[in-house]
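Subject: mismatched residue count in predicted assembly?

I count 551 residues in my input, but I want to confirm that the predicted structure covers every chain. Input:
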Amino acid sequence: MSAALIIIGLTALGALLLGLRARGGREMHLEQWVVGGRHFGTVLVFVLMAGEIYTTFTFLGGSGYAYGHGGPTYYILAYGCLAYVISYWLLPPIWRYAREHRLLSQPDYLAARYDSQSLGILVAVVGLIALIPYLVLQFKGLGIIVSTASYGAIPSTAAVWIGAAVVTVYVIFSGVHGSAWTAVAKDTLILAVALFLGIYLPVRLYGGYGQMFSAINQAKPGFLALPAKGESIAWFDSTVLLTALGFFMWPHSFGSVFTARSEHVFRRNAILLPVYQLILAFVFFTGFAAILQVPGLKGPDIDLALFRLSIKEFAPWFVGVIGAAGVLTALVPGSMIMMTAATLAAQNIYRPLSGADSVRIAFLSKALVPVVALIAVYFTLQGGHTIVALLLMGYSFVTQLFPAVVMSLTRRNPLTRAGAFAGIAVGLATVVATSLTHANMASLFPGLPEALRDLNVGIVALVLNIIASAVVSLGERAIAAPHRA
Amino acid sequence: MILTRILALVPFLGILLGAIFLGNDSGLIIGLPVLFAWLIAWIILTSIIMAIIYACDPANRTHDHR
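Triage response: the counts match. Full output below for your records.
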């Protein structure tokens, strides 16, 4: 067993113990388990919100994308920043409404706002579908870390199973309290590791950032800018918009909003969190540094870039420290996602359909955790996608909820119940159809100009979504109007 | 309040229009790819803009700041 693997194993064990301790003998009701009893202060909510962002996605996915795709990777810097601007106005009213009505989840919220249980079920289905690729990418990351740190002794399939088992055990024993305390440890470690790698590697291998980027520019002209076709400017802007609007539409982001003690937390976080995004730049530096050092990784293997370079440059114990940071970045969000997915299925889909009592639902929420894990493991082992592609797939789904959520905050909501339902249904159907057939604008409408062909399909689905909800809402009001007069 | 909302649009314009004008520029500026450097600058500017909005927003004065 390598020193790297021992360090990673001890970290996972430590996280588990921290999670168990955080539970602190309190009895776990569903509200306690899911939204932490709504008593987290500024610091913990900040860490939880930040923790969700710095996942395997940024650490391995971000560096891998910089390595394999170059310029288009910058979209990751842009969207979180814009999402926090939106959050300043979006989150406080959602938090207030959720507290008044003692809501536990995102489907609860929309069901209450539109007074429609079937809308709640639809929202839960969208959330559940979107969470699967997000969980798959965490498992893919864990698999990469465990198998690379074992220096090949553990094959990647076994590594994925080990990673999934660790997250599952962690979730079942600790709930959101585990997430918050481990998030503190994780953020500290990831910050240190990302900064170190992003500064040390470019300086040591190239002599500085300028030299590194010049060398890349020389070897691959145009790689550091956006390409004219494919991931072009149109792709970049539509993807930034899609992901910025969808940022807080994830069911687990909604969940962490509910954990706050007061609404001030969100306004203050909107100042701090954008600059926190700068850590991403250092993750990208690491990915860029790998381009000329460990060439040849293709397709979904680009996600290996950071670790391949680390193994080449560092002693096993330090690879272990990097791996430990990586494991924590998968464990914290992974546990949040898993818990949210299981709760969605039990609380927001099964309960309204069956009318079961809350004791049974609380039991089912936990019983479904391993089921969710198994589904995600299945898709992880199917493979074929980069980490970034997986997250973008999830975003195409969750962003479909944005119009209904934003409209619910207006004083006189122009959307009717049926309108909100129709919009989300049309958006969902569009994204499912294009994901299953691997279609995009270019393959569907090859005659369109380049700028339209490169649009992110999720944005196209969002436009259809808005049209459908407007048409149905107007139609419904037109039919209802004569009766009212 | 209207003014703060207009101010909130500025980061969107900076980032989305920046990509349109600088996206295809493959040069370097202060050692970084142009669009990369532009976005880093906007991240910092966005935090400053949000701090201004926070300071101007009456909602942040009336309650305790725990």
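DSSP finds 22 helices and no strands in chain A. Marking this ticket as 'not a bug'.
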